[in-house]
Design goal:
Radius of gyration: 23 Å
Structural class: alpha/beta
Strand content: 15-25%
Length: 133
């Protein structure tokens, strides 16, 4: 008489690690998405008949007339602006950065943030303008 062995295997899948990962991803996207498109009100300079306005997937960095830096609507020191951009680049290596400088902003303040972003390895950095009216 042959003995038949029955194995009782637990074929269940633990969903906890997957739920944890999805929660972290959701939190990251919820925090970064508003910063990509929202910005402060600026008086942008005119630059001819075609304007460089950026796209929905670009990080918007603003420099107001007083030389203060913003990512979205959050005011930050220049080094924190660069750190935040580098952190976002970890999620999207092809990240574009659009710098919006107020017409009355100091040219040096706009170029300082652009230079620091270039030093941090960003290749796609542009200046946002308005169409000449």
């Amino acid at each position: 008489m042959a003995h038949i062995r029955h194995r009782n295997s637990d074929a269940s899948i633990s969903l906890t690690p997957m739920i944890d990962i999805m929660t972290v991803l959701l939190a990251v996207f919820m925090v970064t998405t508003p910063m990509l498109t929202a910005g402060i009100d600026l008086n942008l300079p005119n630059a001819g008949n075609s304007a460089l306005t950026g796209n929905d997937h670009a990080i918007q960095i603003s420099v107001d007339a007083m030389g203060r830096y913003y990512v979205g609507k959050t005011q930050l020191p220049i080094d924190d602006v660069v750190r935040r951009a580098v952190a976002m680049r970890g999620e999207n290596p092809n990240l574009t950065i659009m710098i919006s400088g107020d017409r009355a902003a100091d040219y040096g303040a706009v170029m300082a943030v652009m230079g620091k972003l270039k030093d941090a390895g960003f290749q796609r950095v542009g200046l946002r303008t308005e169409i000449k009216k």
